[in-house]
């Protein structure tokens, strides 16, 4: 499925629910940093509030990283019960992963018993950073990376598929060989990590029988085998390992040691 078609289907689904007053009160928009999750949040807000100038709308509130603190959460908990000027009050969390457990717990009661005229959109790269109690009260949409969604290099895709095949076969030699591939991709590791993350998430989404799949994996028979070979917990753990690797590489940890640790930690997941 092409990424633009995926985006359009999600948009149509959300716009239809908004126009029919059936929109949920809380969403998680998850995806890589170059995905269109922020654009979707903006477009949906414009549609609901019937304006092209959200900056002039008092019913629209963006929680930036600078504003992400317990005082802001307490303000939202109070402010959301004040009636909006238009149809809804909309609160966009720019990076929900910045919410500490204390902040999430303080926000939880509002998520559990929200006013009918409020919409919360939590934007993040990895929803696993949110508490289970928060995630369970939101509807999640995953937005694939713009770089890796459709135009992913064929050789890179084949490497990732080969890695997962070796993983389910517990072929340690094949997995170690993948380390050599990673050594040659150091300059493009951001794209590789994004592709690895997207592919793993797509396996998880396939397992959950979601209608929203990224790029061509929906037509790949291998993904059905992979989806049936892993448990939900294993796939979620692999996603966490990949995300942790991304953070370590961004912090300039030793490249080879970090990549080796990622592969060996993933191997441990399936033992």
Automatic annotation (TrEMBL):
Pfam families: DNA_pol3_delta2 (PF13177). One of its GO terms (biological process) is DNA-templated DNA replication. InterPro entries: DNA_Rep/Repair_Clamp_Loader, P-loop_NTPase. This is DNA polymerase-3 subunit delta. It comes from Acetoanaerobium noterae. The lineage of its organism: Bacteria, Bacillati, Bacillota, Clostridia, Peptostreptococcales.
């Amino acid at each position: 499925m092409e990424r633009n078609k995926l985006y359009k289907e999600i948009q149509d689904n959300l716009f239809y629910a908004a126009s029919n007053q059936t929109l949920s009160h809380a969403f998680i928009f998850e995806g890589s940093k170059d995905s269109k999750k922020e654009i979707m949040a903006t477009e949906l807000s414009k549609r609901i509030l019937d304006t092209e100038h959200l900056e002039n709308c008092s019913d629209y509130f963006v929680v930036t990283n600078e504003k992400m603190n317990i005082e802001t959460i307490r303000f939202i908990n109070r402010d959301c019960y004040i009636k909006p000027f238009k149809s809804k009050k909309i609160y966009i969390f720019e990076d929900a992963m910045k919410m500490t457990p204390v902040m999430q717990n303080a926000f939880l009661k509002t998520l559990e018993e929200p006013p009918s005229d409020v919409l919360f959109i939590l934007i993040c790269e990895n929803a696993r950073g949110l508490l289970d109690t928060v995630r369970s009260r939101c509807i999640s949409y995953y937005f694939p990376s713009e770089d890796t969604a459709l135009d992913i290099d064929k050789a890179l895709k084949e490497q990732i598929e080969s890695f997962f095949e070796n993983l389910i076969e517990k072929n340690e030699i094949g997995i170690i060989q993948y380390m050599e591939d990673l050594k040659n991709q150091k300059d493009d590791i951001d794209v590789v990590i994004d592709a690895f993350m997207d592919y793993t998430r797509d396996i998880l989404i396939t397992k959950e029988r979601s209608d929203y799949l990224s790029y061509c994996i929906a037509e790949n028979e291998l993904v059905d085998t992979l989806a049936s070979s892993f448990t939900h917990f294993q796939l979620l753990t692999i996603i966490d390992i990949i995300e942790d690797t991304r953070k370590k590489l961004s912090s300039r940890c030793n490249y080879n040691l970090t990549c080796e640790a990622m592969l060996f930690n993933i191997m441990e997941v399936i033992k």
